[in-house]
Amino acid sequence: MDLDGFKSVNDAHGHAAGDELLRTVARRLGDRVRKSDLLARLGGDELLVGLTGLDPANAWLEAEAVAGQLGSSVSAPVRLSSGEVRIDASVGVSVHPDDAEDFGPCSTSPTCGCTTSSIRR
Fold first, then answer.
1. What's the CA gap between 49 and 31, in Å, rounded?
2. Contact, 3 vs 86, CB < 8 A?
3. Residue 45's closest CA among 86, 6, 87?
4. Mean pLDDT across the chain, nearest whole number?
5. How many C-beta atoms surround the C-beta of residue 29 within 10 A?
6. Strand 46-50 and strand 83-85: pairing?
7. pLDDT of 118 over the 50 cut
8. Terminal Cα distance for the chain, rounded
C-alpha cells in the first residue's frame, strides 16, 4: 500500500505532522486487520499488510475486500494538530502461491500479478 499525498502533508505541515499522520493511519489500519495479520511500514509512504490463514478458494475475494476497507479508512479525513488533511491509498493485492512462490519477489516486483487500485474519495 502506498500512501498517496503523504509527502505533500510532510512538506506543507512538517515532519511532526507527517509522524502524527502515520500514527493515525497505523491505528486505523490496525483496527481493521486481525491480530494474526501483519501490518508493517516498509519505509516512507509504503506499507505492507499480510493477511494470514485465508481460505485459498476465497483468498482473492477476501484480500480485495480488505484492501478496499483499508483504502477507505486511509482516505477518510485526518485531524492533525496543524489542521485537517486528506490522503489516498494505492493498494495492491497479491495471493500466495498464485502470484509468487515466496514473499520476496512479490513484495518488490510490479510484475508479480498484483492487482492494484487507487482508492480515492
1. 13
2. no
3. 6
4. 85
5. 19
6. unpaired
7. no
8. 16
- Give residue 41's identity as a one-letter amino acid code: R
Cell 480488505, residue? Answer: 66
Q: Give residue-wise pLDDT tens across range 33-78.
A: 999 999 999 999 999 999 999 999 999 999 999 999 999 999 999 9
Q: Where are the domains of the chain?
A: 2-119
Beta strand segments in the chain, E:
2-4, 38-43, 46-50, 78-80, 83-85, 88-93, 115-119
Quick one: pLDDT at residue 96?
A: 73
pLDDT at 115: 43
Pick the CATH number of 2-119 from 3.30.70.270, 3.30.450.20, 3.30.70.100, 2.60.40.1260: 3.30.70.270
Of 114, 58, 106, nearest to 90 by C-alpha is 114
